[in-house]
Predict the structure.
Amino acid sequence: MQIINGTLSSETSIHANDNRGLNYGDAVFETLRVQQGKILFWEDHYFRLMSAMRIMRMEIPMEFTPEALSAQIQELVEAHELSAKTAVVKLLVYRKTGGLYRPEQLEVEYTISLRAIDSPFYTLEESDYEVELYKDHYLSPSLLSTLKTNNKALQVLGSIYADENDYQNCLVVNTDKQIVEALNGNLFLVKGDRIKTPPISSGCLNGIMRKQILKLLLELPDYLIEEGPVSPFELQKADEMFITNVVQGIRPVTKYRKKQYSNTVAKDLIGKLNARVRLS
């Protein structure tokens, strides 16, 4: 069951023959975490979606208000009887049928779907998590690379590479040979009391959880924050490395090549993140 253009429907697929999102990647999306009936960081998600739609020259419907969309998400959560549990929701917006590369219209359609997950709050996984650089293809930094569109060929191929080589994730490298992000989230490095993350200008996703972690760090006098280019050499000098996204929260990396990492800062931050979620 999902919501299609505002209506709860038992239809579970999108017709491929005329869908511009599937045929041309003419789509943007948001992945949200709904915890005990509350959409986490909804305002940030909503405004990122609106920004992405404007950049993609999509016409934003009058009914695309934060109140209307959040009500539809809540309706879907309730229809799946997940109001007291945790769900991951995908809001996918794609341009209406018509045209080839050049669309015949700028109006959009959308779907909202979800899946249940077990964790009632953010937890810190401490199992082995090894990463490697993915260098078969490089990311070209631009405004488009910072958006959540469904043009994710690099991430798909990187995930296959990681699976074939027994890595849990890979780090994306841009055309300037800088480390940009992980395949599924933003990257943070810890060295002493300094915490560094690649800047948006490097081409990384403008991540919602990245934003939350930076907000948390600004309130913590024990840490110094830096947004700056990250070279591959810095990875082996770091004491700690972790990946952030809205679904998992914070995922510590345990190993990169011969380097083993601790997770002290990640443990500190996950507790503060959960506290912020409860109070918001």
Observations:
- Residues 71 and 180 are 35 Å apart (CA to CA).
